[in-house]
Design a protein that fits this description.
It contains 11 helices and 11 strands. α4 links the parallel β4 and β5. The chain is of the alpha/beta class. α2 packs across α3.
Length: 327
C-alpha cells in the first residue's frame, strides 16, 4: 500500500473552541510522521478556491489556547454541486494532496462522505461543534468550553435575579439538541430546563414556577434551548409567564454567540490533541470515511455515515436529576 505523503486539514461549519488545538495536533502529528501538511482556508469554499497554505510544526505555535479557528470557516453553495466538487478534487490533485481531515459537524461530514463517494478520496472527520450532537462520540470539541461559558453566564445572571427578585429566561444554543441547556441548567441550578428532545408542556413550567414561589424562592432561572419545542420563542415564553403569573418580574437574556468563543477548556484542548493525532494515524493506515471520537475516555473511530445518520440521545438520568433538584 502506497504511503500518504501529504495531508490537508480544514475547519468547516460553526466554529468551536478547541478547533485550533485540533489543527495544531494534526500538523504536529504530520511533522512527527514526516508527512507534509496543508491548511485549507474557509472550509469547502477554500477547497474550491485553492486557498491553501503549507503548515509546519512551527506554524501552529501558541494557538492551542485560542478560540475560533485560524483556518477560518465558511458556507459553500458551490461545493454542493458536482461541478464544485470536481474543481475541489482537481485542486487537491494538483497540490499532490492525498488525504483530507475535516474538523466540523454533521453538515461538514456529509460533504466529506459525498466527496469520498465521487472521487474515492481518503477523508477522516474530527467532530468539532459546541452542540455535542454527533453520534459516535461522548464529547465533541468545543462542547465542554461552551458548557462552562454558559454556566458562568447563568451564575452571573442569578446574582442580579436574586438582587431584584426576578425570573430570568436564559436562552442557550441548541437548535436541534438540548445538551448545553440540560447540563448547564443542572450545573447552574436552574428551576426549569426546556429542551428540543422533551416537550414537557407550558402547564408543567407554570406549575413548577408556582411551586418555587410557594416554597419561598424569590427568584428563578429558566434555561431554554433555542430549539425548544414548546411552540414559543424565549420572548413569547416570558410574555406567557407574565400573563399567567403576574407576580413575577420577568426578564430575558440570550447568551448567543458568546458560547462559541473564548479560550478552550483543558478538557477540549486534550480531546482535540488526542483526536488530531488519531485522525492522521488513520489516514496513514490507509483508512477512510471514519470519524474519530471518544468513548469511555478512549479514542475510537467509527463510520462517518453512522455519525451523520445516528441519533445522539439526551441523558434521561440527568433529566430525572433535574426534576429532583427543582424541589
Amino acid at each position: 500500500m502506497k504511503k500518504i505523503k501529504k495531508i490537508a486539514v480544514m475547519t468547516s461549519g460553526g466554529d468551536a473552541p478547541g478547533m485550533n488545538a485540533a489543527i495544531r495536533s494534526v500538523v504536529r502529528a504530520c511533522a512527527y510522521y514526516r508527512v507534509s501538511c496543508v491548511g485549507i482556508y474557509r472550509g469547502y469554499e477554500g477547497l474550491i478556491d485553492a486557498d491553501f497554505i503549507e503548515l509546519t510544526a512551527r506554524s501552529v505555535n501558541n494557538i492551542i489556547n485560542k478560540g475560533g479557528t485560524i483556518l477560518k470557516s465558511a458556507r459553500s453553495k458551490e461545493f454542493r454541486t458536482k461541478e464544485g466538487r470536481k474543481i475541489a478534487f482537481e485542486n487537491l490533485k494538483e497540490q499532490n494532496i492525498e488525504g483530507l481531515i475535516v474538523i466540523g459537524g454533521d453538515g461538514s461530514f456529509t460533504g466529506a462522505v459525498l466527496f469520498n463517494e465521487e472521487y474515492n478520496f481518503p477523508v477522516i472527520g474530527i467532530p468539532g461543534t459546541i452542540d455535542n450532537d454527533i453520534f459516535g462520540t461522548s464529547h465533541t470539541i468545543g462542547y465542554d468550553t461552551a458548557l462552562n461559558t454558559a454556566v458562568e453566564a447563568i451564575d452571573k445572571i442569578r446574582d442580579t435575579a436574586s438582587s431584584h427578585n426576578r425570573l430570568f429566561f436564559v436562552e442557550v444554543m441548541g437548535r436541534d439538541a438540548g445538551f448545553i441547556a440540560l447540563n448547564a441548567g443542572v450545573g447552574a441550578g436552574a428551576e426549569e430546563i426546556l429542551i428540543p428532545e422533551e416537550n414537557l408542556g407550558l402547564d408543567r413550567m407554570l406549575e413548577s414556577l408556582k411551586k418555587s414561589r410557594r416554597t419561598g424562592k424569590s427568584s428563578s432561572i429558566v434555561v431554554v434551548a433555542e430549539g425548544d419545542k414548546s411552540g414559543k420563542n424565549v420572548y413569547e415564553l416570558a410574555k406567557y409567564v407574565e400573563e399567567n403569573l403576574p407576580e413575577y418580574d420577568v426578564r430575558v437574556s440570550i447568551l448567543g454567540h458568546m458560547q462559541r468563543g473564548g479560550s478552550p477548556s483543558c478538557f477540549d484542548r486534550v480531546l482535540a490533541s488526542r483526536l488530531g493525532v488519531k485522525s492522521v494515524e488513520l489516514l496513514l493506515d490507509g483508512k477512510t470515511n471514519l470519524m474519530v471520537g471518544l468513548k469511555d475516555n478512549e479514542v475510537i473511530s467509527s463510520s462517518i455515515l453512522e455519525a451523520i445518520k445516528g441519533g445522539h440521545s439526551i441523558n434521561h438520568e440527568l433529566l430525572r436529576v433535574s426534576d429532583i433538584m427543582t424541589t
